[in-house]
Design brief:
about 550 residues, alpha/beta, Rossmann fold, GMP Synthetase, Chain A, domain 3, 13-stranded mixed beta sheet, 7-stranded mixed beta sheet, 16 helices, about 25% strand, globular, binds adenosine-5'-diphosphate, AMP-dep_synth/lig_dom, ligase
Length: about 550
């Protein structure tokens, strides 16, 4: 083998922040703080403070690979921890603060976190769990020293500002194996205990490069990016890393995630690009509609985490001139797998044909290999019709969960996603369901996503979830659970009639159940397990 003669440098996260400081030193990072005000500084400041974090971690005597947890909103201090913790060789463990405190304690113990840094909004959680987390040696509140209340009951509690203040803004980032762990994220664990994906520096940097590509998230130094997706939800889909890689302005919403606050931040900061799950955008669009508002700078938004209803893609495009990039991924995939953008040959297609493509979850990103298989593991054709279990592999996809939980997850080197999908001849993947949500009616499968998308297109519907209910003859039949828009009128019969002609007759739900709210999980997704529990006593009128 003749070896190439190029330099070999490990791909490390510390390089991202140093690059951003050097080449985009004055690009802004703007954060709405828990304190309520707006904080702004630059990548140069971010780099200095990240180096101080690294120094402060050395000061605590933390070894390489030790876990430092965060319970924090999107903001500049959280970002400093992203670079300071991982850059210095420790592992950033972002915990979802919306989980139950017992779950948070369980996760912190499983990860063996040594330090926990938290926003003051989460002080009550920390007060509830600190006695149950024997590995945690340091509790750090992300605030100024004077904002720290007396008598919190948390031993040794320090303020972040006080902790980093004395540290030098110079720091020699260590150089180590790029396969070393950099951060970790627990899956929401809708069934069983949560399991953690442990990312490496290499996987993170490769993902950051890929995410920035024009046909992926299309990020550049001309963008002002608003990640509404939390930094505790798969590293805000990798945006903090990709933003540093391209030098874009970053705008963080902090704890204010309602439609009004998000809209005001987008307008005030000239946001060109935003990212979040569909439920967040629902609140934003409802606010804008109610007040007759327009966007002046927003151009694109990446929507994923659950299926983006076509009605939302259309509303963004037709009413506001904003392009929606529908994306699919998961915690185990860092998270990006596919993004939906058109190909050159599609540009001449009529609008409605283009929209049919845009609804799909999209094409695989270079680095992600995917296939669909039947129950016996036989590969299925890419005909856009045949659906099967979706498997993936690639350099930013999980090989094994932290501590080997759940055994070997791979099947012949492929990771089974738990999603059911079709892939068309052009390589566009479309999720029909989560395998556990598929409705099996009379031996045929009904896609709950299809049923939900149609309901969501009805103007009186705010949110819709389709679940299967036991049926003596058909095994299961779909029902659609609906939250009406405030003030809107809608009857069961009207909605059922709305389905006619849109899907096959046997796929039309047997019933409509109106509820005040659909339970949402910790990452803003509809919790169908909870919904099924809520409707445990429900009986089909057709049964
Ligand atoms: P969890 O699985 O713990 O809820 P993830 O964020 O990792 O958390 O969720 C990944 C899952 O979310 C995917 O396997 C898929 O079922 C669903 N998902 C993500 N993006 C989309 C999308 N664009 N359309 C449909 N489902 C999606």
């Amino acid at each position: 083998m003749l070896m190439g003669l190029m330099q070999s440098q490990p791909l490390l996260i510390s390089a991202l922040i140093e690059f951003a400081a050097r080449h985009h030193g004055d690009a802004e990072i703007v954060s709405r703080r828990v304190e309520g005000d707006i904080h702004r500084y630059t990548y140069r400041d971010l780099a200095s403070r990240s180096r101080q974090v690294a120094g402060a971690l050395d000061g605590l005597g933390l070894a390489m690979g030790d876990r430092v947890a965060t319970l924090a909103w999107n903001g500049y201090r959280h970002l400093e921890l992203y670079f300071g913790v991982s850059g210095s060789g420790r592992v950033l463990h972002t915990i979802n603060p919306r989980l139950h405190p017992d779950q948070i304690a369980w996760i912190a113990n499983h990860a063996e976190d040594q330090v926990v840094c938290f926003d003051m909004s989460f002080l009550p959680i920390i007060q509830a769990i600190h006695g149950k987390c024997p590995t945690v040696r340091h509790w750090i509140a992300l605030c100024e020293a004077h904002a720290l209340p007396a008598n919190t009951g948390i031993p040794g509690l320090r303020s972040y500002e006080d902790w980093v203040a004395g540290q030098s803004t110079d720091y020699d980032w260590p150089v180590f194996d790029e396969n070393a762990a950099s951060s970790m994220c627990y899956t929401s664990g809708t069934t069983g205990n949560p399991k953690a994906a442990l990312y490496s520096h290499r996987s993170t940097i490769l993902h950051a490069y890929a995410a920035a590509l024009p046909d992926v998230m299309c990020l550049s130094a001309r963008d002002a990016i608003l990640p509404v997706v939390p930094m505790f939800h798969v590293n805000a889909w990798g945006i903090p890393y990709s933003a540093a890689l391209v030098g874009s302005k970053l705008v963080f919403p902090g704890p204010a995630l309602d439609g009004k606050s998000i809209y005001e931040l987008i307008e005030a900061e000239g946001v060109t690009y935003a990212a979040g799950v569909p439920t967040v955008w629902q609140m934003l669009l409802a606010h804008m509609k109610a007040h007759g508002l327009r966007f002046s700078t927003l151009k694109r938004t990446v929507i994923g985490g659950s299926a983006c209803p076509p009605a939302m893609i259309e509303a963004f495009k037709n009413d506001y001139g904003v392009e929606v990039l529908h994306a699919w991924g998961m915690t185990e995939m860092s998270p990006l797998g596919t993004v939906c953008t058109l190909k050159n040959k599609h540009l001449g297609l009529p609008e409605d044909e283009q929209m049919k493509i845009r609804m799909k979850q999209g094409r695989a990103i270079f680095g992600v290999d995917m296939k669909i298989v039947d129950a016996e593991g036989r590969e299925l054709p890419w005909d856009g019709k045949t659906s099967g279990n979706l498997l993936v592999k690639g350099p930013w996809i999980i090989r094994e969960y932290f501590k080997g939980e759940g055994g070997d997850p791979l099947v012949d080197g492929w990771f089974p996603t738990g999603d059911v999908a079709t892939i068309d001849p052009d390589g566009y993947m479309q999720i029909t369901d989560r395998s556990k949500d598929v409705i099996k009616s009379g031996g045929e499968w009904i896609s709950s996503i299809d049923v939900e998308n149609i309901a969501m297109a009805h103007p009186a519907v705010q949110m819709a979830a389709c679940i299967g209910v036991k049926h003596p003859k058909w095994d299961e039949r779909p029902i659609v659970v609906v939250v009406k828009r405030p003030g809107a009128e809608l009857s069961r019969e009207e909605l059922l009639a709305f389905y006619e002609g849109k899907i096959a007759k046997w796929q039309i739900p047997d019933d409509v159940v109106f509820v005040d709210a659909i339970p949402l999980g910790a990452t803003g997704k509809m919790l169908k397990t909870k919904l099924r529990e809520m409707l445990a006593d429900y009986r089909l009128p057709t049964a």
